[in-house]
Amino acid sequence: MTDWLSPEEWTAVRLSLKVAFVAMTASLVPGIAIAFALERGRFWGRQALDVIVHLPLVLPPVVVGWFLLIGFGRRGPVGSFLAEQFGIVLSFRWTGAALACAIMGFPLLVRAIRLSIASVDRRLEDAAGTLGAHPAWVFAVVTLPLILPGIIAGMVLSFAKAMGEFGATITFVSNIPGETQTIPTAIYAYTQVPGGDGGAMRLTLVSIAISIAALWCSEWLARRVGRQVRAS
After folding, report:
1. Is 175 left (phi over 0), alpha (psi -120 to 50) or beta?
2. N or C end of the chain: smaller count of CB under 10 Å?
């Protein structure tokens, strides 16, 4: 692949994989927690939280990127605090691309996990609780294995969304080769120059191959986990 792709294209592929993996991993624990809160929680503001979580699905990605730029840019309230106190700069950096991708993929992650939680037989959890098991132990031993297929599905959806994210990313971190230029932004750059069709096609094929591989791995893992859960 390194011979087929130019060094700049290979850099965009590696950066896309890194950004997507970081976005997916960083979203996992908050995604599980919020999915549980939305599915089983009964608290004031639950509907508002639900709306906020799913808002990136209906907002134009450019709007999400603009809000990130306003809030997490160097002059934004959060961005300036992070830069002054911790030396962390997100705007126009690959870490900012990971943040944008995490936010755009977060609703898909939460929704998949929430649907999996809704399908859990509560009687199994109640039975473990009546035996004196701590709620954390019930979650780790009973609930988590049952919702693991949903978690895997959500992770794949989040990863795939991050791999294809364009609007929020280019608005928040621009399209800087070697720093923030992912596969979608690199394809866009190729379409803006004469003779760029070849590079756009190569990166498109790579993107398709990565997506197919991710879906295949997801299906394989979900079936494997499902068989293990049923066997236990």
Report:
1. beta
2. C
